[in-house]
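PROTEIN SPECIFICATION:
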Amino acid sequence: FTYYYKNDGLQNQSVLYRKDKAGKESIFLDPNTFSKDGTTSLGGLDFSRDGSKVAYAISEGGSDWRKVILMDALTNKIMEDTIIDVKFSGLSWKGNEGFYYSSYDKPKGSELSAKTDQHKLYFHKLGTSQKEDKVIFGADQKRRYVGGNVTEDDHYLVITASTSTYGNELFIKDLTKPDSRIVTIVDNFNSDNYVMDNEGSKLFIVTDLNAPNKRIVTVDVSNPKAENWKDFIPETENVLSPSTCSGFIFANYMIDAVSAIKQYDYSGKLIRDIQLPGLGTAGGFTGKKKDKTVYYSFTNYTTPGTIYALEPKSGESAVYEKPNVDFKSEEYESKQIFYTSKDGTRIPMIITHKKGLKLDGKNPTMLYGYGGFNISLTPSFSISNAVWMENGGVFAVPNLRGGGEYGKRWHDAGTKMQKQNVFDDFIAAAEYLIAQKYTSSDFLAVRGGSNGGLLVGAAMTQRPELMKVALPAVGVMDMLRYHTFTAGAGWAYDYGTAQDSQAMFKYIKGYSPVHNVKSGTQYPATMVTTGDHDDRVVPAHSFKFAAELQEKQAGKNPTLIRIDVKAGHGAGKSVSATIQENVDIQAFTLYNMGYKALPK
């Protein structure tokens, strides 16, 4: 079968379909049947090696805690008892006999806020109870994130382990030998590393060790330590994110936040540069070695996500599936500019709007940012952004330091005692848009979620006069205590913690949004958004920030907090809830910019 997701546009959750070899389509899993209100979502799945069985995870009410259900993929019948209390986990089958998954011991106290810091890797054998699942890794030493993945040939189990969101140990176990020991490949947390593939005992490892933009190395499993690694695809000036399919390696490079794809064979020979439909974000290029077709997606700010089928031997691509979206891409333009931040750093930003825009300083503008955790903001289409632009709005996305757009150095430049760089980059983006008359402070809204919620909170408390509207979502707002909730301590690579040193305490307190709301200051109109089941960035962050603003706001601008019920950090949020949230956000934004009717 070929599996794919579809949504008619108003279904709360996307439906997983499949086609057989004759092209006959059928529904395989419909998450809309999981709950009446659409708040239970599909959170990942993996098929047994022969495709006859599937393990899929569900999230209830937006929580990061999952249940895993085992199903016969041919009859769609549930096979055994549901596995419960699974969190931050992939699912990876060993042949057809069972699968690996990761979780924490259930915390004492609130499941939605109590600290979770010892992740363990388990193996579930089909036909046994969860109580019999064996701990494969993580019982002896605390690590906050542990994952296991089986190589396509079922020969090896690859284990990653980390204490923070950057840097991981790497281990491997020979599954063909029942009593084989776990062998260490990397024994520290100073670099990011994972095994991409293997050919027999030859491992292909993706790493940023001595290569901030990443490289692919090879090594024999018999002696896999880093001193034996050999460059296969060396580091370049652009960030590398490779994948494999159909017996080829696809090197996805990011050039100023835009994708470029090179196809290699397993000897390291460059076969071709893949011709993409335009400038934007390409993803996918993953599959099995025996697959005859390579599927990939392409999108940008004016192009709805489209799936292409690539014939890997000829390099020819054709549209496989294109969404039916009532949006006239040809009437909009997206351009990338570069502006200068406070310390002289050159920052890219993509600005998208209707063609023929007047640069008169009066255009309602949404400035969206993130700037953290090595995450890159690459061009992608969004229905809510399309509505914003149809109503005359400008949508601008800068690629701030702290992200991954230019590799590890760019990421590190926005961490710990350099975190202020991220806020300076964002503020400089706002100043650029105002100076170039895209907008003015009376028509500028700033928006971001999670680490981006922190970004908005810091920017609006440091420069409250710069924007008219602030929209911090599920933000990390109390920076002195973030590490005491759920898995928050794992974010210390980016933030540091107040317990690290007196200097770090002072630095964090200097920008922590909750601690920098000052009496007698006029803050922008603010709508804080969060979810009652957010067990990643607990909603207490948002509650405290909103309360501080409501108490100390000097002007007439409103401060609201919008709390979704049976919703979490954002993953799996239903379409109806997403529509309601975006309606409220855009209406609040335009109303506070002075509009009594939609702009033209």
Notes: The chain has a mean pLDDT of 95.
